[in-house]
Backbone:
């Protein structure tokens, strides 16, 4: 490959990595604000960027040996960290949803449930204890 082609590939890869970081930041905002439509719209854009970066950048082994790709590597590390943060947030939200769904299921009506009282303290009560039982 010619030096000019490598230089152009490096420049394009850096630009795409910067765009990817921006998309991952928008993805985080959409997740945080629970805007699932916006989150889903970002997925094809993110996947296209990843495909383009994969096509332009050399393999991991070769990438480590080429100092001119250092800025690109640093941006991709940032992208990796953003992706991990987004995954963590998404997993936490899914756990909260699962917990809510589990508490709403009426399979075991005698199971105790934790709720907040009017003072903001957690209290436990059994679902089968109603006003009529008092």
Residues:
């Amino acid at each position: 490959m010619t030096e000019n082609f490598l230089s152009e590939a490096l420049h394009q890869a850096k630009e795409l990595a910067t765009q990817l970081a921006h998309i991952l930041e928008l993805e985080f905002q959409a997740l945080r604000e629970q805007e699932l439509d916006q989150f889903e719209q970002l997925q094809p854009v993110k996947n296209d960027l990843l495909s383009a970066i994969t096509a332009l950048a050399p393999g991991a082994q070769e990438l480590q040996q080429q100092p001119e790709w250092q800025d690109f590597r640093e941006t991709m590390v940032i992208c990796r960290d953003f992706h991990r943060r987004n995954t963590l947030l998404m997993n936490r939200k899914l756990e909260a949803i699962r917990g809510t769904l589990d508490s709403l299921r009426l399979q075991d009506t005698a199971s105790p449930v934790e709720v907040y009282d009017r003072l903001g303290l957690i209290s436990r009560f059994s679902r089968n204890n109603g006003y009529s039982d008092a």
Summary: The domain at 3-109 is CATH 1.20.58 (Methane Monooxygenase Hydroxylase; Chain G, domain 1). The chain has four helices and two strands. The beta strands are 112-116, 122-126. Helices lie at 3-32, 36-56, 60-65, 70-104.
